[in-house]
Amino acid sequence: MNRIAVVGASAAGLAAVETLRREGYAGTLTLIGEEPAAPYDRPPLSKQILAGHWEPERLSLRTEEEIDGLKLDLRLGAAATGLDTAAGVVRLADGEQVGYDGLIVATGVRPRRLPGQGGHMLRTLRDALDLRERLRPGTRLVVVGAGFLGAEAAAVARGLGCEVVLLEPAPVPLAHAVGAQVGEVLSQAHREHGVDLRTGVTVTQVTHDGVQLADGTGLEADEVLTAIGSVPNTEWLDGSGLDIADGLVCDRYSEAAPGVYGAGDVARWHNPLFGESMRIEHRTNAAEQGMAAARNLLRPRTRRPFAPVPYFWSDQYDMKVHAYGYLRGHETVEIVEGDLRRRRFLATYRKHGRLVGALAVGMPPKAVRPWRQALLKTEES
After folding, report:
1. Is the pLDDT of residue 378 over 90?
2. Order of strands across the sheet that contains 218-220
């Protein structure tokens, strides 16, 4: 294998190219990224960057010298627009073509948009800095979507002295992911901090002076942030013959086709540990899958299934949330330690009687780590 291309220059793509070099690959290694910036970390965008606690340079995942040391054919600011798997060619927006013998797709996701003009998204560094410039004491911010991203941004905005209205179509925010009990606990924290949290509210479009609701009424705002989920960046794969279904469909090895692997937010793969197809939009998974895909691409005869225990965390006010496992689709939730009312507890999640996840709020990471080991003992039947 003389030429490997990695499309996507964020956490998953960087982990892939570093792993390839570390494992001894000495051929041409091309890293293609749509943004002009070198690989940087995204989770702090809705926390430290938005709050003004960090400046952009702290986000860099590697120094310039470390990137140079990888001896990459680095194509930043170059969006991939097409893929010809038969010819082994990635087409770029500037007309260039990049040939490959092996390919890793790590193009991530983009925010889902609402109709209308204006408003903010929160995916890139530029997004975070643009919104940060507008958040001042007294600014009225409407956040559409009370998932983890919207909730984190709402908490930061309240800390900056903004008036925050948080809108969520579901009766209980995050209930689909963490259960109604835990969702209510997290919601109450926002209300106690002065957030005007409104559930069962659907927004139909962003307007020049706020948002329009499904009942036809308008809600005024100085600024609007839309945080209603993400869309996998797979359009550039149209016509490639690869299977696309809410992400690039991969097998248990993260392989989408011979010599083509997926990694990170864009990849939907079969996780044999849980016996389910999943697409995980968490920072830890991006790095782990980037490494796994690189090893399996480089050494197909000794490749291993990618069977991680997913992990995510969230910071909201003084609460730290940690979770292991795949909580979506759970059937039962049990509080096994602590007290919901004090917002200091550990919950476990089961499906068909089988442990599928554990979540801790207001407790140290060591409290939930043993549950990761328990999840690792779970095997696909």
Report:
1. no
2. 203-207, 210-213, 218-220
DSSP 116: B
The Cα–Cα gap between 174 and 305 comes to 30
Whole-angstrom Cα distance, residue 14 to residue 332?
37
Q: What is the pLDDT of residues 173-210, one digit of tens each?
A: 999 889 999 999 999 999 999 999 999 999 999 999 99
Q: For the segment 341-352, what is each residue's pLDDT rounded down to a tens digit?
A: 999 999 999 999
10 Å Cβ neighbour count for 25? 19
Q: What is the DSSP string of 270-287?
A: EETTTTEEE----HHHHH
Distance between CA 31 and CA 357 in Å, rounded? 34
Closest CA to 155 of 109, 112, 130, 186: 186
The tokens for 199 are: 């559930």
pLDDT at residue 380, rounded to an integer: 41
Torsion sign, CA atoms 62, 65, 71, 74:
positive
Q: CA 301, 10, 100: angle at the middle one, nearest 5?
A: 45
Nearest to 345 by CA among 367, 328, 366, 360: 360
Residue 22, pLDDT above cutoff 90: yes
Please compute the mean of the pLDDT values over residues 50-64 and round it to a whole number. 96
The pairing of strands 248-250 and 267-271 is parallel
Label residue 118 by pLDDT band (50, 70, 90).
Answer: confident
User: What one-character-per-residue DSSP string does 140-190 give?
Assistant: EEEEE--SHHHHHHHHHHHHTT-EEEEEESSSSTTHHHH-HHHHHHHHHHH
What's the confidence (pLDDT) of residue 297? 98
